[in-house]
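Entry 14: structure prediction run for tRNA modification GTPase MnmE. Input pasted below.
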Amino acid sequence: MHGKAIGWDDTIVALATAQGIGAIGVIRLSGRQSIDIVNRLFPAKDLTQAPSHTLHVGYLKENGKVLDEVVISLFKGPKSYTGEDVIEISGHGSPYVLQQIIQACVNQGARLAKPGEYTQRAFLNGKLDLAQAEAVADLIASNTEASRKTALHNIRGGFSERLSSLRERLIKFSALIELELDFSQEDVEFADRTQLYELLTEVQQTTQQLASSFQLGNVIKNGVSVAIIGKPNAGKSTLLNALLNENRAIVSDIAGTTRDTIEEVLNIDGILFRLIDTAGIREHTHDVIESIGMEKALAKMQQADVVIYLFDVNEITPAELQATINEFNNKKLKYVLVGNKADASPEAALRDKFSSIAGITFISAKENRHTEVLKEKLVDLVLQGKVTADDTIITNARHFHALQEVLQSLIDIRNGLDNNIPSDLIALDIRRCLHYLGEITGEITTEDQLDYIFSKFCIGK
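Run finished. Output tokens:
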């Protein structure tokens, strides 16, 4: 069990369900006085004598006044989410009624919970490690199948298990090297350097793999920004509508209709793509408003994770397209080439016309032709075949930075071994490596760090 700060003996109460009117609302209490507090408001049954993991129906009353008819769920510690005695009160979903119940619990000695305090208590009581606790917040915030799977994998301990196994083996070597220091006069070697090299290689590969997954993890968690750019009237707004299956953008035959940026979110195979339709890019314009739109378009293009370059296959030459591609390559942009209005010419003729340029997706946004092919290409461009359902993927910036520190300390350990530096210095580098591995799972934490991490949670979780 982790050390607890002042206030952790309090019994806390909060609404566990979302704010607003609903069929039911659930109020959660956790702490030593949970059962006694609710028992004083629940005359139907003596909850102090009830077994754990049971449900009880009856009226909640305060000073003889009926507050609500409720269902009480009783969980006795340590077999509860927080490891403490937990009571959940399921009442009718009136915000006023639920607030009255919470106030009654406060009147009986509970205090209002802080954000993330239930999960923080679960961590402090050893029910979850820190990486699992943070995955709880990710799961609550997940809005795609991919982000749900990633968070659930981490809650189940997939990430933690990989790190804990490596950390334990490093601890063993660290202990042996420290033991050598006690016998420094006798020039003995307890830690097999060959085995240590092998372990370092294994830890390095695993850590590098996890750290490398952060870019993908960030995509799964936060989505991908996609700037749709092209000359005026290339069909950008029509494409946006085709992808979203709705008329979100203004569509007309007048060149340069879109004067600002429009953002929409598209879920493709569990990944969120934030589509940004930008004002048409022209080299020269006398329209001041359109000039402002162009500046925004260029800025969005620089900020975007992926650029869809949409061009009218009937209006552009291969040489012009190649010049644009060269510009994208110079700016190191990740882009997809999309030839629109392909319904006006046979596809074979188009492929022949643009045969010098690979990777073009020919579509007709107006007729919604081949837009599914474009969606598949977007997913492939982001994932690049690097993810499976069982992969451990890093989505947390704190974990990523800790892994980078682990990698640096592993390099220092290896350099030390190569240069035959004294055992006490190698032991110091191993301790630094262990420290950062422990920071991820919470085996090494500070109170300020914990307060910061859990303050990002919603109240009631």
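Notes: The two ends are 20 Å apart (CA to CA). Will compare against the previous run tomorrow.
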